[in-house]
TrEMBL record:
Protein name from the UniProt record: ENHANCED DISEASE RESISTANCE 2
A Gene Ontology molecular function term of the record: lipid binding
One of the Pfam families matching this protein, by short name: START
Domain START: 28-208
Organism phylogeny: Eukaryota, Viridiplantae, Streptophyta, Embryophyta, Tracheophyta
């Protein structure tokens, strides 16, 4: 049965990523596997490879080890970037480090090397840590005599807790290191069955996961769980396991490696941990194969429940409404917006409270009628009250209900992305949308979710943004304005250093990425399920300079 189950796991993953057989005997270091991702070869600048391993410590501990610059401790697990010093540090989530390398540790290098790279890190609402590392330059460390300047490959670390159901209650976490390699060099190494790859900087970097695993295993103090720092993992594909496989380390690691990229199905907020902390899920939805069936189902809003069908609908023709950002003419259009369906987003299904099943979203309940892209000196709020706002036009005043989402983007200058979602009928007061629109700010904060996705763009941005639902009321400051026929939500992205760091990265690539967003009101009770998509937007390769000045 174990063999059959492993086959199911393998077949599911092979749909996404082709893995070459020689990886399993050549690139297998101390229980850590190295994979090549060829699911979308045109999605980035180079070839992506990753090393995956399970480490016997909680994510908080491993994160501190990876981030630490303590030379003596770092050399015990990392011989290539073990000698680091801080050059610059900003806001507690970004720094620049300088490192040197002595060739005595890797015999195939004959000269001393040095390098500089930046590190940007943040912690997700589910306790997962992400570290982004980019090669860079710094005025404090120009070229140095006797050293050859090496460009460290762009890379990421992802560290997430795994649920443990054994009697020992030992902490474990999944560590994934992903890095980008030049396609030209990678093809040469791969065609030679990776023999030369074992003598490269990328290989040495990927070996850090194996070194980390051994270092933690050799220090029992790291494996003890601290009640003040331990963050319990959520039940997900990456952490769900059957008691039959609890001691089968190799299959577990393979399964974790597969699911590490499927973040859209992970639990989306910390409340779920309280609901599920005593549950033992047997391979979510019985098996991987059965779970995959849920991905084929969609969840559409129950219009009878949310909107008043006794009232005649009004026309929501786009030509009636004007926004400063242009609507897309076709899929290839740029610097524009469109509204995709909800099938690209995973939301809670009808049986979510019983088995954590998520399904694809359906058509949004509200229609996106316009988008404004403003630049402002200071963060703008209550934009719906401005005389020239869409809400104040004759067409806007006739709408039964409008949800105005104002994303305040911190930058120089500041920006506001304003989304206008309209209903063609009045909202039922007793519906979930009605309770959200007319409820308290506390209720709204506990239910308002945003699901992001980078549909196209640089892989590092995709890893930073992810696809997990974020409960915005917990992550950033949200202010609500309920008047007349609208509810405005002002989302201060700059109120969170983590969110500010991520949006700063996104803005650096904004002209080359396609961003999808979905708005969801979280369903927490049986009668509120299944969830539905409230509204969506696709932002296609925006130009910052196209933002217009907000007129007061």
């Amino acid at each position: 049965m174990a063999v059959l189950f492993l086959c199911i796991r393998m077949s599911a993953y092979l749909e996404k990523c082709v893995m070459y057989i020689f990886f399993f005997w050549t690139l297998w270091i101390s229980g850590v596997r190295i994979f090549e991702d060829v699911s979308n070869p045109k999605s980035g600048k180079g070839i992506l490879v990753k090393a995956v391993g399970v480490v016997d410590a909680n994510a908080d501990t491993v994160f501190e080890i990876v981030l630490s610059l303590d030379r003596n401790k770092r050399y015990e697990w990392d011989t290539i970037t073990g000698d680091l010093e801080m050059l610059d540090s900003v806001n507690g989530h970004y720094d620049v480090v300088y490192g040197t390398f002595n060739p005595r540790y890797l015999s195939w290098w004959q000269t001393k090397r040095d390098f500089i790279f930046s590190r940007r890190w943040f912690r997700g609402q589910d306790g997962t840590y992400t570290i982004l590392q980019f090669p860079c330059e710094h005025k404090k460390r120009p070229s140095r005599s006797g050293y050859e300047r090496t460009i460290i490959n762009p890379s990421t670390w992802e560290i997430s807790n795994l649920s443990t159901y054994s009697s020992s209650n030992a902490a474990r976490c999944l560590v994934t290191q992903m890095l980008e390699i030049s396609p030209r060099g990678w093809l040469k190494w791969r065609n030679n069955r990776s023999q030369k790859f074992e003598k490269t900087v990328p290989y040495a970097l990927l070996s850090q996961v194996a070194g980390l695993k051994e270092y933690v295993g050799a220090n029992p103090a790291f494996t003890s769980v601290s009640s003040t720092t331990f963050v319990q993992s959520k039940i997900s594909h990456a952490s769900s396991s059957s008691s039959e496989f609890e001691d089968a380390e190799v299959p577990d690691e393979f399964y974790d490696a597969i699911s590490a990229d499927s973040s859209s199905e992970d639990e989306d907020d910390e409340d779920d941990m309280e609901v599920n902390k005593d549950k033992k899920i047997k391979l979510k939805n019985v098996s991987w194969a059965i779970a995959s069936l849920a991905l084929k189902r969609t969840s559409a809003p129950d219009i009878n429940k949310e909107l008043n069908l006794h009232e005649p609908p009004i026309s929501l023709e786009p030509s009636q409404f004007y926004g400063s950002m242009r609507r897309a003419k076709n899929e290839g259009d740029t610097n524009c917006w469109s509204s995709p369906d909800g099938t690209g987003f995973m939301i809670r299904g009808k049986t979510y409270l019983k088995d954590n099943t998520k399904v694809k979203g359906g058509e949004p309940l509200l229609k996106l009628i316009a988008v404004d892209w403003f630049k402002v000196d200071n963060p703008a709020t209550k934009v719906a009250m401005y005389p020239k706002s869409l809400i104040q036009t004759d067409a806007g005043k006739k709408l039964p209900f409008v949800l105005v989402i104002n994303l305040e983007v911190p930058a120089k200058p500041n920006y506001s992305l304003v989304l206008y979602y309209a209903a063609d009928r009045p909202v039922n007061n007793n519906s979930l949308l009605g309770k959200f629109a007319n409820g308290t700010d506390l209720f709204r904060d506990s239910r308002f979710k945003l699901i992001p996705s980078i549909a196209e763009g640089y892989w590092m941005v995709k890893r930073a943004v992810g696809t997990k639902a974020c409960k915005l009321g917990k992550a950033v400051t949200c202010k609500y304005l309920r008047q007349d026929n609208f509810l405005e939500i002002d989302i201060d992205i700059g109120s969170s250093s983590v969110a500010r760091s991520v949006i700063g990265l996104v803005l650096g690539y904004i002209t080359s990425i396609v961003v999808d967003l979905a708005i969801v009101i979280e369903a927490q009770e049986e009668e509120e399920l299944p969830e539905y998509i409230l509204g969506t937007v696709r932002l296609n390769r925006l130009q910052l300079e196209s933002a217009v000045r907000l007129e007061v």
